Amino acid sequence: MARIGKRMKKAYEGLDIEKTYTIEDAVKSVKARASAKFNETVEVSLNLNIDPRQADQQVRGMVALPNGTGKTVRVAVFAKGPKVAEAQAAGADLVGGDDLAEKVLAGEINFDRVIAAPDMMAVVGKLGKVLGPRGLMPNPKLGTVTPNVAQAVKDAKGGQVEFRADKTGNINAGIGKAGFDEAKLAQNLKAFLDAIVKARPSGVKGNYIKKATVSSTMGPGFKLDIAAFGGMTVAQQAA
Question: DSSP characters for 148-169?
Fold first, then answer.
């Protein structure tokens, strides 16, 4: 077993790792145990009761966090004509067509999100082997292939987070920074969980969310009480 560093050992000191927490208490505990010298990302990790091998049990989507992520998102846009200026005005970091595609093929991938106008998919389609494995390929279902590139850029810059279950049914995402106040982190976490519950495939039987944990980048994980939101949306729970 790998040795646990002094800092991590201190972070777990006095912690009951089997205890489950409400959203509010989990956020409070994460903030209290975040002791790194940088502003740690607060992350949520979920294990879903799905079979990702089945086409009707894919869980993927976008959610706009009400208080943003605290992270600077670099956005690349494939566009031409008037949409180039629209994307630039909205804050896109990179805008282009064939020239941008050549940079991507050359390994220049200094962006976190790719948006494409529909008439640019012939160009973007050639980049599938490069962008696909990195989870950067634009997708109409996610709103990253759209004629309204300006709004897509604003959404990406404003705290929109993509989620996607991997082949083992796990989803991991950052939902803010440890420096956020508790209320804002709790709002972001609720919004994220609500989006996951709404994305529940119709074929899932029994409990949809098997496990949910919240942590900071360098801190311990806190198990969420999944019974509080596993069967319905967070909004319904609060009603």
Answer: -HHHHHHHHHTTEEEEE--TTS
Q: What gap in Å lies between CA 109 and CA 102, rounded to an integer?
A: 11
CA distance 212 to 233: 15
How many residues are recorded in the chain?
239
Q: Measured between alpha carbons, how far is 117 from 132 in angstroms, rounded to an integer?
A: 17
CA distances from 208 to 59, 175, 191, 198 (A): 11, 21, 17, 11
Q: Which of 204, 207, 206 is nearest to 229 (CA)?
A: 207
Query: In angstroms, what is the C-alpha Rg of the chain?
Result: 19
Q: Give per-residue pLDDT as tens, 96-115.
A: 999 999 999 999 999 999 99
**Structure-derived torsion over alpha carbons of residues 48, 50, 51, 55, reported in degrees to the nearest 10:** -120
The two tokens of residue 168 are: 């083992």
Contacts of 227 (CB under 8 A, 6+ apart): none
Residue 108: CA atoms inside 13 Å, Cβ hemisphere, count?
9
User: Is 42 within 8 Å of 175 (Cβ atoms)?
Assistant: yes
Q: How far apart are CA 238 and CA 220, in angstroms?
A: 27
| 169: number of Cβ within 10 Å | 17
Whether 2 has a pLDDT exceeding 90, the answer reads no
Backbone angles phi, psi at 96, to 5 degrees: 180, -170
